[in-house]
Design goal:
The protein is mainly alpha-helical and 278 residues long. The chain contains 10 helices and 4 strands; from the N terminus they run H-H-H-H-E-E-H-H-H-H-H-E-E-H. Strand 1 (101-107) and strand 2 (113-119) form a beta hairpin. Mean pLDDT is 82; it is low at 128-133.
């Protein structure tokens, strides 16, 4: 008995009644010769594709047989084949839809727009792996990332950031827009700038003085990043610390004897102690 070759695909069924016909009734027979040079390996997933048109299948085989760098634009293919630009363009779209072509538009260094075409002999795979080709995945729409926020310059830090001090500093920043509407800042920017204003208030400046320092001599042109301008001023114009004032020690009076109870107490002049005055 012969051994059945399980790797051979079953013959295609007739579209008339589903019954196979012998070669005597018009069925195809193959007179094959093994190629050793100038041949292209084409998968049956392309040659027997059920969704592609015959023009698209033939065009895909032609493109896969070309060397890298060959021109496969619509004009070049229309000059090579008699089908015309409209039918060739439709066939290219079919191949692109089913993953046999990838076309992207690129700009050259000279500013010209060119089309880069990649031919895939096994859609969804690379390196010529064996096995059935998975169906092409629909393109996924990725959410656009928000523009990256530039970091504000650093601001001075207060020595003792008490809650009352920070609240006063926030009030100074909130009031800037009343003097100049261009100094309207976000809550995030205000949170970054509050320590810098608090450092100014620690240097014996009043909130009104800090307000004037941040709003005087502003540029006339529009302020694209008012928070960055305020951060620069808080750092570049930071006033020095106030001079240290040492407390004077209290004077120690000499000991005196109370004229009434004769107890010792301290006072500048002799007399009665505090207990005897009551």
């Amino acid at each position: 008995m012969g051994t059945k070759n399980t790797s051979v695909r079953p013959p295609a069924e007739s579209r008339n009644d589903g019954k196979s016909h012998s070669s005597q009734c018009g069925g195809v027979t193959h007179d094959n010769v093994r190629h050793t040079t100038r041949f292209t390996v084409v998968g049956n997933h392309l040659a027997q594709h059920t969704a592609l048109s015959l023009l698209a299948i033939g065009l895909a085989v032609h493109i896969q047989s070309l060397p890298s760098g060959a021109r496969v634009d619509i004009n070049s293919l229309a000059a090579r084949f008699p089908e015309g630009k409209t039918r060739i363009a439709g066939a290219l779209r079919e191949l692109e839809t089913h993953g046999y072509l990838r076309r992207t538009r690129l700009r050259t260094q000279q500013g010209r727009m060119v089309t880069r075409t990649v031919s895939c002999n096994q859609p969804g795979r690379t390196g010529g792996e064996d096995g059935p080709s998975p169906p092409p995945r629909p393109p996924r729409r990725t959410a656009e990332k928000p523009p990256r926020r530039r970091v504000l310059p650093a601001v001075p830090e207060p020595v003792y950031p008490t809650p009352d001090l920070l609240q006063t500093a926030l009030g100074v920043l909130s009031g800037l827009r009343r003097t100049d509407p261009r100094l309207l800042i976000s809550a995030t920017d205000a949170e970054h700038l509050v320590p810098g204003v608090a450092a100014w208030l620690e240097r014996d400046l009043t909130p009104e003085a800090v307000h004037r320092a941040l709003t005087n001599d502003l540029p006339q042109e529009p302020l694209h990043r008012p928070a960055a301008l305020l951060a620069h001023r808080l750092t570049a114009q930071l006033p020095p610390l106030p001079p240290f004032r040492a407390e004077r020690p209290s004077a120690r009076h000499p000991l005196q004897n109370c004229d009434t109870c004769d107890r010792a107490y301290r006072a500048a002049e002799p007399g009665t102690c505090g207990g005897c005055r009551i």
